[in-house]
Design brief:
Order of helices and strands: HHEHEHEHHEHEEHHEHEHHH
Number of strands: 8
Structural class: alpha/beta
Number of helices: 13
Oligomer: single chain
Distance between the termini: 74 Å
CATH topology: TIM Barrel
Shape: globular
Helix content: 40-55%
CATH architecture: Alpha-Beta Barrel
CATH superfamily: Glycoside hydrolase/deacetylase
Largest sheet: 6 strands, parallel
Bound molecules: zinc ion
CATH class: Alpha Beta
């Protein structure tokens, strides 16, 4: 019998064996990249424009053949900012856009009706941009889905009636912290500080990707399709190539938001009021009372004091 197996195996070309081994489903995890706070998160170093920031990031996404990347916009930032308007036009000509409310409104400090008006106020600009894809995706500012269950349900019901989908977040390393620090360090041309920003960013990204994946396994018993939250700002184009390399090294296959959220886990709803609970996975960890695995802290203090 053993001989029969061996002789059969001998007849199968090695190349076919390799194809079979590497084609096993689940070998790579799917991940969608998204950018929030368009046209700009944080501040910029002197002489850098919003349009240039968007252009540089778009060039990287194109060069690296990243599937369509949603940019979630706050149209209030366009008031009195032709540069911001130009940045948005550039984004929409290349990538899809979604709703992040008009004024980046916090649902925890506002009534559900006020929040709904802020969603609506953002829509004329989303329509005017004529970007490819469906803009009826809402990304909650601060990922706040409601501090009371009534608010949470009210907004979810509103979104359903108005054909919106919720753009969830399942991986987040609070990249925006580096946008502010980088703008200050670049203004001072502090190369040593900028080098530290790069290493601390990549270390934090790596740690929090691992943590998100651990959370998914604890909640669902397996890995999921992930949605990554990034913010378009001063540091984005400087660090994005390295961040993309990191994701590749960790075995992620980049996909669209639609494909990532075709994972049925995104149909779930913790359905409780939560205060500043974080990502969709953080919310489930709280609701299911699962202990968060040990992980490193983000360098909040250092990022706040650097180049001040
Ligand atoms: Zn935001």
């Amino acid at each position: 019998m053993r001989r029969l197996y061996e002789s059969l195996f001998d007849r199968i070309p090695v190349s076919l064996v390799l194809v079979v081994v590497f084609a096993v489903p689940g070998y790579t995890q799917k991940l969608a990249i998204t950018f929030d706070d368009l046209p700009l998160n944080g501040t910029l170093p002197p002489g850098v424009t919003r349009a240039q920031t968007a252009k540089d990031v778009l060039a990287i996404l194109k060069k690296r053949h990243v599937p369509p990347v949603y940019g979630f916009i706050n149209a209030k930032k366009l008031e009195g900012s032709p540069d911001g308007a130009e940045a948005l036009k550039l984004w929409a000509a290349a990538e899809p856009v979604g709703n992040h409310t008009y004024s980046h409104m916090d649902l925890e400090t506002n009534a559900a009706e006020t929040f709904e008006r802020d969603i609506e106020e953002n829509e004329p600009v989303l329509e005017l941009l004529k970007a490819k894809g469906d803009w009826r995706w809402l990304r909650y500012p601060y990922l706040h889905e409601g501090d009371t269950v009534e608010k949470r349900r009210a907004i979810r019901a509103y979104l359903k009636t108005h054909n919106y989908r919720i753009a969830q977040v399942t991986l987040d390393w609070e990249d925006y912290l580096w946008n502010f620090a980088y703008a200050r360090c670049a203004a001072k041309s502090d190369q040593k500080a900028i080098a530290w920003l790069r290493t601390s960013y990549l270390q934090t990204a790596s740690d929090f990707v691992d943590l998100g994946r651990e959370q998914a396994k604890l909640i669902y018993g397996h890995e999921i399709n992930y949605v990554l939250l990034l913010h378009l700002g001063a540091f984005s184009s400087t660090i994005l190539p390295d961040a993309l390399d990191l994701l590749k090294k960790k075995g992620f296959k980049l996909v669209t938001l639609e494909e990532a959220q075709s994972d049925p886990i995104y149909d779930g709803d913790p359905d409780v009021g939560l205060h500043d609970a974080g990502t969709f996975l953080d919310q489930w960890m709280l609701v299911k009372q699962i202990k968060v695995p040990p992980h490193s802290d983000k360098p909040y203090k250092e990022l706040e004091s650097l180049c001040q």
